[in-house]
Amino acid sequence: MSEITLREPLLVELSSPGRRGVRFPAADVPAADLPEGLVRDDLPLPELSEVDVVRHYTRLSQFNHAVDIDFYPLGSCTMKYNPKINEDMARLPGFAHVHPLQPEETVQGALALMYYLQEYLKEITGLAGVSLQPAAGAHGELTGVLIMRAYHRSRGDTKRNKILVPDSAHGTNPASSAMSGLRVVEIPSDARGNIDLEKLKAECDDTLVGLMITNPNTLGLFEEHIDEVVQAVHDAGGLVYGDGANLNALLGIARFGDMGFDVVHLNLHKTFSTPHGGGGPGSGPVAVAEHLVDFLPGPIVAIVDQDEEDDLPTFGLVMPKRSIGRVKAFYGHFSVMVRALTYILMMGAEGLRQVAEDAVLNANYLRVLLQDTYHIPYNRLCKHEFVAEGRWEDAPGVRALDISKRLMDFGFHPPTNYFPLIVHEALMIEPTETESKRTLDAFVAAMKQIAREARENPQVLHEAPHTTPFGRVDEVKAARELVLTWFDWNR
Amino acid sequence: MSWKVLPNLKYTKNDEWINPEDGTVGITDYAQAQLSDVVYVEITVSEGDEVQKGDIVATVESVKAAADVYAPVSGTVVAINDELADTPEVVNSDPYGDAWMVRLEIANPAELDELMDADAYQQYCEEREH
Amino acid sequence: MYTPHTPEERRAMLEAIGVQRIEDLFSDVPAKYRYPKMNLPPAMTEMEVAEEMQGLADANLTVKDFVSFLGAGAYHHYVPAVVDHILRRGEFYTAYTPYQPEVSQGTLHAIFEFQSLMCALTGMEVANASMYDGATAVAEAVNMAYHVFRGKRPKAVLSAALHPQSLATVHTYYDASDREIVVPHADDPTADPMRLLDAVDERTSLVMVQYPDFFGRVYDFTALAEAVHAKGALFGVAVNPLALGLLKPPGDMGADIVTGEGQPLGIPLSFGGPYLGIFTTRKKYVRKMAGRIVGETVDTRGQRAYVLTLTAREQHIRRARATSNICTNNALMALAATVYLGLLGKDGLRRVAELNYHKAHYAAQRLAALEGYELAFPDTPFFNEFTLKTPLPVAEINRRLLDYGIFGGYDLSQDFPSLDRHMLVAVTEMNTKDEIDLLAAALDEIAREAAA
Fold first, then answer.
1. Is A476 in the B-facing interface, judged by CB distances under 8 Å?
2. Which residue range forms the structural domain that includes residue C383?
3. Please, which residues have CB within 8 angstroms of residue C85's CB and are 6 or more apart in sequence?
4. pLDDT for the residue C91
5. Judging by beta carbons within 10 Å of its beta carbon (0-12, 13-18, 19+), is residue C352 exposed, middle or buried?
6. Over the stretch B54-101, which tens digit does the pLDDT of each residue have?
7. Residue C137 has what pLDDT?
8. Could you tell me which chain C residue has the CA closest to the CA of A118?
9. Distance between CA atoms of A317 and A334, rounded to whole angstroms?
10. A479 touches chain B (CB under 8 A)
11. What residues of chain A score a pLDDT lower than 50?
12. Pairing of strands A300-305, A286-288
């Protein structure tokens, strides 16, 4: 039985009884009696010095790949550069140390910030109302579905219980719909990668709440029949929900509102440069057309007083008239909003449009350079991402997984694997606009080398990665023998 | 690719098998190959439950997928295989034997005629694999 | 500008693609939609935006400018310097969800530590990698209990002493669904918790309370948990994790699900977010728990390693059959809490909790002694927050307190009309004795001036 080696211990293994990290002042008040029967006997936390903690987390950080290190072409995630000015602005004491329940007259700066972000997101989406409250994209989706349902009910239309979702959709789309208690029907894609219009029309009846659609879709393609799609849904009395995860392709190029979408969520942690944080926090604001404005979750920020046109307005928190209610505590992820507003102010309309142009330029550049080496099932002009197949007939046994693991040896994070489900061995590649031609060329070279290795030396791929601090992990063991905390060890 | 398909069983489009003689139900060799390493099986019905054709009787989880197992026909649950919770890997190694999931007292034998026989199922698997 | 291309590079790339101009890349967008005019301010340089944002920040008062006794779900605590230094490492904050374990062991390892620490605090057996906040964690607890009983017990009984925003979130999520959300004695929110049992029957999947509750009160829920179990339902508790540095954990009282708002653990107030949803439960229910979970394993080189596990529960696999839709969570805030707890450790967390406790009790004693003021619940234990009955409407008192440079406690009449003239006062390690004495003097003066 081979020994298991330790690259880096856990906090509990670095612990030494009596070690102190941070000290606090002595109490300057008399000690009160502790509540009888309610004091805990034992607090099983580790004991470390400050140096221990700093070294531990600094060493751990070295095991991560990150956008600050190198290319991270995860399709659908928009791993663009996270500007450092955003980080400084979020930490301004005037933002970081404000309590959400302070009197409104003492937080006019924070409210103004939220108000302007609401307004700018309306401009960018071409829609009439925005709530910044949802905490992430999936949260925004749930919110959007609840808004659509509330709208229908308010009109006495209680028969509607069906949501349509393309088969290429992100898993959160059907999950959010099901979570709202609605019936999910999947619509297949056609041969060109669009949503199948005829099959969609067949489902457009009076039980339809709406359609959840991503445009451009998860294949990176702009829906070729978007007008007919929107028309079909509206004709049946349904609403169109836009998953805004792919907005990086359309900033300043086209607006959801102009295309007839009724409700949309945005991912500030994708399109608007706020960092992914190893899994969050994100922010998923929801934007809606005029007829849905009253249903937004709240509170949202509005101008509550303004003596004269040119006077400084007074901002306040208000609940929309027929709001679905609040979807979380307080007002949303404020410090993420600070970052997003900083970004929008630095880009301006021109800059945002250039973001989309370069994102789409970069994606098409990669597509064209890789199309002879990797099969791209829907190979036409793409938007900010495209999907290739990670397999070849003459390299049996080599899969998207192997290609991804081998890319790590070249210093790149792999693209998104196995999504969308409608492409075999999918590799979804989204370079974003912040990557240089040099990086893109290096990525192409690596992908071509991997394609050669697949035929000449597939073992190198099957055993990859070789140069990363860790190799492939045993996922079956992790799922069969559940060790989910350090208390699970048999000691 | 080839998968084991037993001649005496009946099959569903969702890759369940049923033994028409004793009403035992499980998932097929093709299904376990699709799932790859099974890590968990949960039987979601109890002895005595009445199920309609198409009701969920179990859930099978692997590292990368989760699948619901549906009753191929209507009937009453007379036995469940509670050993699967401890040895889920048996679904991969012996899908037609030790990995049986539930045993049904079949309510309406005519429903068996709606299912595929071994040859039809074999063909169905081949159609999907290209 | 963060797009690096030179004009020559753009030309070369367009040529490689086979189009003449960038505009040609958008020929698939219908012309009528293309290039909308967006009314946004002209682009600013970094220097200009820094000034603009500073201006907005300056238009706020903060808990560093004023003395604050505000709590009600968000608390002013000391965040040690190390926490933000770790959070500012690009390897942590510019990384993505750790779906590729070979290049994400930093994140995965830290999450495993977070899960362990949350179980250490709550006395539970498993934790997820975080949720959005305490309020949505309560909603997810309702969801989980529903799925544990496979929909056969559609009712959830929730205490009216849960944070009103948690209850509001649950209502938004489930009011129009087949779940029945019952908040008994909502007209008497300070009723004894045992009275929740009045509403519990064989259709109940979950009974949920808060600890300390919204009014600051601390109860031993062991008897209630037993009674709930006797009726076949699950017992859930929403906690302030800092209180668990001192107080008996709900795991020891028989809880099945313990959620929490982790903001007190090293996360700044930031006008309400992002904060940290904590979710823990018993191992036997782990497959019904939503959210990401990290498990321990080995890699091909024989090294101990961590990986996202039990992923078959989640939306990217189960899609419509997932129990929850959660994808992005609050990972970086979970890291903050992990570093915070690592720094404070066993001794430090106990000390901070005690400081909160003693200072709050000193304040309660001083304020209760003032004429016209009294404690609403003089016989019930509390941690760092208590309800004070006031001689004037709280809104009026708080307006006057601003002149003293003080943010007064939360006005409970905003949520509970029956609790007119009731102030929720929070006291933490950040409040000195002098500040508490100042509050007492100010409240006294305000009452006297009004009486005059």
1. yes
2. 67-77+347-451
3. A54
4. 98
5. buried
6. 999 999 988 878 889 999 999 999 999 988 988 999 999 999 999 999
7. 97
8. C40
9. 14
10. yes
11. 1, 491
12. unpaired
Q: Which of residues 409-438 of A touch C (CB under 8 A)?
A: 413-414, 417, 419, 433-437
Judgement on whether residues C270 and C301 belong to the same structural domain of the protein: yes
Q: CA A46 to CA A59: how far, in whole Å?
A: 18
Choose among C129, C247, C271: nearest Cβ to A110.
Answer: C271
Indicate whether C152 belongs to any domain.
Answer: yes
Q: Given this model, what pLDDT does residue C109 score? A: 98
Inter-chain contact C36–A252, Cβ cutoff 8 Å? yes
Section C167-185 average pLDDT: 93
Chains within contact range of chain A (3+ C-beta pairs < 8 Å) = B, C
The helix-helix angle for C331-368 and C105-122 (nearest 10°) equals 30
Q: Considering chain C, what percentage of its residues have pLDDT values greater than 90? A: 91
CATH architecture under which domain A85-345 falls = 3-Layer(aba) Sandwich (3.40)
Taking the CA of residue B110 and the nearest CA in chain A, the distance in Å comes to: 30
Contacts of C312 in chain B (CB under 8 A): 39-40, 61-66
Q: For residue C136, give the amino acid letter.
A: T
The pLDDT of residue A1 = 47
- Whether A372 has its CB under 8 Å from any CB of chain C: the answer is no
**Distance between CA atoms of residues A146 and A295, nearest Å:** 9
CB atoms near residue A75 (< 10 Å): 27
Residues of C in contact with B44 (CB under 8 A): 150
**pLDDT of amino acid A147:** 97
Residue range A349-475 forms a domain whose CATH class is: alpha beta
Asked whether the beta carbons of residue B62 and residue C312 sit closer than 8 angstroms, the reply is: yes
Closest of C346, C351, C431, C427 to residue C387, by C-alpha: C427
CATH topology assigned to domain B10-108? OB fold (Dihydrolipoamide Acetyltransferase, E2P) (2.40.50)
Does residue C423 surpass a pLDDT of 70?
yes
CA A181-A186-A192 angle, to 5 degrees, is 150
pTM for the model stands at 0.95
Evaluated on CA atoms B50, B55, C291, A425, the torsion sign reads: positive
